[in-house]
Amino acid sequence: MKKNDQLLEDIAYLESIGMTLDQLRSLHHWAGRPSSEGRVTFNSARDYFRRGQELGVNNSLFADRLNFVAKAHTQDVADARTANIGDLVEHAVRELPSNDVEPTL
Question: CB 3.0 to 4.6 Å from 30: which of 36, 45, 88, 94, for a disulfide?
Fold first, then answer.
């Protein structure tokens, strides 16, 4: 599966389980920037990544973080553990730190 397709699946899954916009934005490489509030949404991410273009370093990191949270949540649910999305988001950011290389999406 192409990384863009996986990212789109992960966004759909995470939105369906109640991930908040703040949690989505905290996974993005623009986390904490005022511009992220208006530009990073579930819809904007879907629209951007449906184009199918190659992912740059920062967008690849965003995709990896989303996938980390989606996989961890799925595993927690399968193991009958309480999957706290907020904790998983924090773990993803710690495990996959940003180098903030390029200002894209």
Answer: 36
- CB atoms under 10 Å from CB of 77, counted, come to 12
CB 4 within 8 A of CB 52: yes
Q: Give the total number of structural domains in the chain.
A: 1
How many Å apart are CA 99 and CA 102, to the nearest integer? 9
Contacts of 69 (CB under 8 A, 6+ apart): 10, 14, 19, 27, 85, 88, 89, 92
Which structural domain, as residue segments, surrounds residue 11?
3-95
Kindly tell me if the per-residue pLDDT of 42 is higher than 50. Answer: yes
Cα(28)–Cα(61) distance, integer angstroms: 8
The answer to whether 86 touches 23, Cβ cutoff 8 Å, is yes
